[in-house]
Amino acid sequence: MRQLGGGFFHSHSAAADLLRPTLQLELFFDRAQRVQQQQRVQHRHRQSQGVVAVQTVQRDRAADRRLVFRHFRRRRCDLVVVETGLGGLYDTTNTITRDDKLAVVVRIGLDHEAVLGGTLVEIARQKAGILTRHGEAVVLRPDDDEVGAVLAAEARHRGCRLRWVDAQTGPDDVAHLVEDGAVAAAALEVLGTRTGLDLAGRLRPLASLALPGRFERVALTGGGEAVLDGAHNPLKLAAFVDRLHRTHGGRRRPWVFGCKPDKKARALLEVVLGEASSLCVVGFPIRGGDVPAGPSIDPDELAAMAAALAPDVPVTVAPDPAAAATFVRSATADVVPVVGSFYLLAALRPLLATL
Question: What fold is seen in the domain 5-208?
Answer without folding.
Answer: UDP-N-acetylmuramoyl-L-alanine:D-glutamate ligase (3.40.1190)
